[in-house]
Specification:
- This protein is of the alpha/beta class and 362 residues long.
- The chain folds into 2 domains: 2-169 and 345-361, Glycogen Phosphorylase B (Rossmann fold, 3-Layer(aba) Sandwich), CATH 3.40.50.2000; 172-343, Glycogen Phosphorylase B (Rossmann fold), CATH 3.40.50.2000.
- Helix content is 43%, strand content 15%.
- It contains 13 helices and 12 strands.
- The protein has helices spanning 19-33, 53-77, 98-105, 126-138, 150-154, 197-209, 228-235, 250-258, 274-281, 294-297, 312-323, 326-343, 346-361, and strands spanning 2-6, 37-40, 83-87, 109-112, 141-144, 162-165, 186-190, 218-222, 242-246, 262-265, 286-289, 304-307.
- The strands form 2 sheets. The chain has a 6-stranded parallel beta sheet, sandwiched between helices. A 6-stranded parallel beta sheet has the order 9-8-7-10-11-12, with helices on both faces.
- Helix 1 (19-33) links the parallel strand 1 (2-6) and strand 2 (37-40).
- Helix 1 packs across helix 13 and helix 2 (53-77) packs parallel to helix 3 (98-105).
- The longest helix is centred in the N-terminal third of the chain and has 25 residues, at 53-77.
- The termini are close together.
Length: 362
Amino acid sequence: MRIAFYAPLKHPDHPTPSGDRRVARLLIDAFRRSGHEVEIASRLRSFDRKGDAARQARIARIGARMADRLLRRYRTHGTAPALWLTYHLYYKAPDHLGPRIARALSIPYVAVEASIANKRANGPWDSGHRACVEALRQADAVVTLNTRDDVALTTYLRADCRRVALAPFLDPRVYRAARSAVPIPRLLAVGMLRHGDKQRSYEILAAALAKLGARDWRLAIAGNGEARGDIEKLFAPFGDRVTFLGMRDEAALVQDYANADIFVWPAINEAFCMALLEAQASGLPAIAGNFGGVGSILRDGKTGYLTAPDDAADFAAKLAALLDDPDLRQTMGDAARAKVRREHGLDGAAATLDELVRGLAA
């Protein structure tokens, strides 16, 4: 089946790595694994960070023109898709293409990881909010990766809209790098060095490390961004115990996970955190803040520990428990790897998505 794929927040071959780009690529891999032909329909980024109404209106006009051009191309060359799929639409990055094209071609419209924030109605992102509502009302199927989005979406979906809860997934076979043993526990954090929620996560992590007393540890931080200078200052008191690795590609990250003993991430306002899933696939126990769908990936007390949101003291206490007990780290790491293979594999996701789109096409 020919599937038109669109990611309005960040297209799959965007140069800057992120969890969002990672999930988009994994979705494409899952469909191709089932024999579907996936075309990236557009690289138009509809993202508006600041709530600029004029910018949003301009992007909407560009989207309408681009949709019309795609329709002409599909009809002229006989290359129309059998289904349109949009990944991660929300009020800051609405879909101005898919609903228009799906209606014109009379093909199913599928939204994956859509979210609704009703508080954005009548505010700076009102037009983006309304565009998301309209898209959801047209959707023939909605796939959620974070079950906490379900309640808000329900209001806007048609009675016959198919709903699929899909666990975040990856290919566990990628994370097989040989692990090395060292006497000092090695911590790893993976996250963009950006202002806002990411910086707040690093602030919580630095505050937690300061509460560990005389315990010895080393921390590596993978990621980069405009807030790097400010975030480096947070960890300056720890001297050479903290290393900033910069931006890492997938191969380098696989080795970074193998070189660590504990994954640490306060996860402020994270939807579910792909890095957490990758770390557990690599056999790492994790300490993470209990936000969004993080609890669906990390099994508290089994594959690591969930901490109270935005609580450095709780984070420090649970990290101390893992630092003090190598056997517990091994037990939790083994359980984490097994959970990912059992519940978050690419093959299982591919089968679920294949069944959905074939049913819609039929």
